[in-house]
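lol forgot to send this yesterday, sorry. struct tokens for the thing we talked abt
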């Protein structure tokens, strides 16, 4: 027996005997303390119990009071109470340990299952803390971004984020689903669809985010291709010519694919060089269509390839300077897209390039077809409308109400006749558009044939009554027919229900010509069509027009007539084309005309001009001004008028300088010899006359000096006669003892207008 055990057992026996001698609460407390001591000293329960019963058996006699035995048992129980508590605590601890161990085993199995589940996901999985740091990922996440679980955590900014890309959303405050581009570890751009959810971690009571990512690059590229194709189609949709298609299409194509320059070469024929269209070459020689030999060779090679064949430049390398492709399938156009710096071209890029170039090729082909159809249509329409070459002093304007047609139901015709007169017809068929144009074409042809056969205005309308009665839709057509006689200064006219012509003398308000009026064509059977004759004063302006010019909603037609008359009073010194512009500008509604408009403006040759001035250089400026105004009133085109003014100024300068050179007058700046002065004391004068007929303009400059032949070597002067010959059609110089006359003349050109690509609503 150990000393500790023996000491404990002795103390226990002594304490028990005192308690049996005098049971009390104090001794019971000592027993409880002994139990706690037993726990500390490691006294076994068996030793304690055996010692208790041995001491109790000696201390308690058989005849002892039963309460003594009860006191002994109570003391034992008090001692064992501490041991009981310890035992129960042990068992509780053991039980809790087993529970914790079981729970740990369960968690270990569950974590393994969770890990296996997360790793089995095809989508990338991640866990982020409240600061946005990625603390957990799966292998799919690493495959999508190039950044796997081995390198977590990934704090903000994440290594896959693109600085120049869209702003990275705040997981805590913004959308839980979003799409953004990321930079894969290998350098390529990947578009990811991100879905996140917010949770609270139980152990730390912190907010975390779990989410998945999915590669949507293919879907994004497909959508981008569709949007790019839609933008390109929209951009070129309104274009109606190859030039317009390439002007807008190349800009859109270049921006979409990120190219620096887009170049298209089009070979219009086998025998001509290519036409070059360039976008994005500001400041380069390519902007002017000047391609270097390499570019020309690339485009020449590309156009001979099959349609929709694209190849990179240079071929067979990882990085390309650009791409080249045929444009269309006709072998006459090629496209070159040049990048600012070499770059890799992915499969998605090739798909996008092929799609966009295909759309552009279709747009170019559609524009070509439209150009061909429009050229054919306009040729037919213009043939129906009227002459493309007008006699001098005429201007015409035509504007259909229904674009894009170039013709409608209104028409004009100007027909030079064999006797020197000029037939003019202005008509208006019922209706609009192509159906009215068909009727118009037949009536215009019939009217022209009647004029060429010598029919006067009234006879022409009478014959047209019969023609119109046999043409469906021609009933109620209004026509004004006139025959102008520029030489005699007369106009004969007849009106079939049409707007009256307006005639204005020089600087005089216009007046309506209301004679010769009758009903529209094919409505009644009048006994005879009336006809009226009116004098055309020199320089007078005559305007014939259809009702579309003067009939407007809410405006009295007399007000429109008055406006035209006022314009004619202010434009007698302007060219017929300028008169037409002024009339249209004054009457045009803000929203444009809602009916077809046809108008003919004619200017009668003005009265001859005679100017006599002193032979002084200071008179030249006024002389030039008067001559220029007279030429405008005579409807001489500005370029020709400038030549005539220069030639006349040269002739007058020569007379001023040389005819009276001995007189006490300032010396001019003439450059050719004309005459010598008879006397230094006489006052010399220079006379200029100008006159015109239907075809020619004649200018004469006369002085009273004597002719002086030119020097054999005039030096740097003496070029005046050569200059006058160059500026006029013919030059005649007549000289005698009484003076010199310089006569020059020109033939007025016909007013010619091209048939190709006419501009709607412009003047001739």
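and heres what i got for the seq, position by position
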């Amino acid at each position: 027996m150990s000393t500790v055990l023996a000491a404990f057992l002795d103390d226990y026996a002594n304490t028990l005997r005192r308690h049996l001698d005098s049971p009390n609460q104090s001794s019971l407390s000592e027993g409880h303390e002994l139990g706690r001591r037993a726990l500390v000293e490691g006294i076994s329960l068996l030793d304690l119990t055996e010692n208790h019963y041995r001491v109790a058996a000696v201390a308690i006699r058989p005849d002892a009071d039963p309460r003594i035995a009860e006191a002994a048992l109570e003391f034992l129980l008090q001692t064992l109470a501490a041991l009981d508590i310890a035992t129960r605590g042990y068992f509780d601890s053991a039980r809790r340990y087993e529970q914790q161990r079981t729970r740990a085993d369960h968690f270990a199995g569950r974590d393994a299952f969770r890990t296996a589940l997360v790793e089995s996901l095809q989508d990338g999985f991640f866990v982020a803390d409240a600061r946005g740091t990625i603390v957990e990922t799966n292998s799919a996440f690493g495959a999508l971004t190039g950044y796997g679980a081995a390198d977590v955590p990934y704090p903000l900014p994440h290594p896959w984020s693109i600085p120049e890309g869209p702003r990275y959303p705040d997981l805590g405050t913004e959308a839980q689903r979003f799409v953004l581009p990321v930079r894969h570890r290998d350098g390529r751009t990947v578009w990811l669809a991100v879905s996140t959810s917010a949770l609270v971690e139980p152990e730390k009571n912190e907010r975390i985010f779990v989410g998945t990512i999915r590669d949507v690059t293919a879907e994004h590229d497909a959508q981008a291709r569709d949007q790019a194709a839609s933008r390109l189609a929209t951009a070129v949709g309104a274009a109606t010519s190859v030039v317009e298609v390439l002007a807008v299409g190349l800009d859109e194509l270049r921006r979409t694919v990120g190219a620096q320059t887009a170049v298209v070469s089009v070979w219009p024929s086998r025998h001509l060089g290519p036409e070059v269209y360039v976008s994005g070459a500001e400041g380069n020689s390519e902007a002017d269509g000047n391609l270097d030999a390499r570019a020309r060779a690339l485009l020449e090679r590309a156009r001979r390839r099959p349609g929709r064949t694209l190849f990179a430049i240079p071929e067979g390398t990882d990085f390309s300077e650009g791409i080249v492709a045929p444009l269309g399938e006709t072998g006459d156009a090629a496209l070159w897209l040049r990048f600012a710096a070499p770059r890799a071209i992915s499969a998605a890029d090739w798909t996008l390039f092929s799609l966009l170039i295909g759309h552009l090729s279709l747009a170019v082909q559609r524009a070509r077809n439209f150009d061909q159809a429009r050229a054919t249509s306009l040729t037919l329409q213009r043939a129906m409308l009227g002459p493309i070459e007008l006699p001098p002093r005429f201007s015409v304007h035509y504007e259909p109400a229904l674009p894009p047609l170039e013709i409608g139901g209104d028409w004009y015709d100007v027909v030079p006749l064999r006797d020197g007169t000029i037939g003019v017809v202005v008509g208006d068929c019922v209706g609009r558009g192509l159906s009215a144009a068909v009727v118009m074409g037949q009536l215009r042809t019939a009217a022209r044939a009647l004029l060429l056969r010598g029919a006067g205005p009234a006879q022409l309308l009478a014959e047209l009554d019969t023609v119109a009665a046999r043409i469906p839709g021609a009933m109620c057509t209004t026509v004004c027919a006139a025959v102008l006689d520029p030489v005699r200064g007369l106009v004969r006219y007849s009106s079939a229900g049409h707007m009256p012509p307006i005639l204005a003398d020089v600087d005089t308000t216009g007046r309506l010509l209301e004679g010769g009026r009758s009903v529209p064509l094919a409505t009644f059977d009048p006994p005879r069509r009336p006809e009226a004759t009116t004098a055309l004063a020199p320089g007078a302006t005559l305007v014939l027009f259809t009702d579309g010019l003067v009939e407007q909603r809410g405006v009295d037609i007399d007000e429109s007539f008055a406006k035209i008359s006022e314009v004619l009073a202010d434009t007698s010194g302007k060219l017929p084309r300028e008169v037409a512009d002024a009339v249209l500008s004054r009457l045009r509604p803000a929203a444009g005309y809602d009916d077809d408009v046809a108008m003919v403006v004619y200017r009668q040759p003005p009265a001859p001009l005679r100017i006599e001035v002193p032979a002084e250089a200071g008179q030249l400026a006024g002389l030039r001004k008067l001559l220029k105004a007279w030429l405008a009133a005579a409807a001489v085109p500005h370029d020709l008028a400038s030549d005539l003014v220069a030639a006349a100024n040269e002739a007058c300068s020569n007379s001023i300088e040389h005819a009276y050179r001995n007189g006490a007058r300032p010396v001019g700046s003439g450059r050719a010899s004309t005459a010598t002065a008879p006397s230094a004391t006489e006052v010399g004068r220079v006379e200029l006359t100008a006159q015109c007929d239907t075809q020619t303009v004649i200018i004469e400059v006369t002085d009273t000096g004597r002719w002086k032949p030119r020097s054999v070597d005039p030096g740097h002067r003496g070029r005046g006669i050569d200059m006058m010959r160059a500026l006029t059609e013919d030059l005649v110089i007549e000289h005698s003892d009484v003076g010199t006359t310089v006569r020059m003349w020109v033939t007025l050109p016909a007013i010619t207008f091209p048939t190709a690509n006419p501009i709607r609503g412009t003047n001739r």
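Residues 209 and 361 are 50 Å apart (CA to CA). anyway ping me if u want another try
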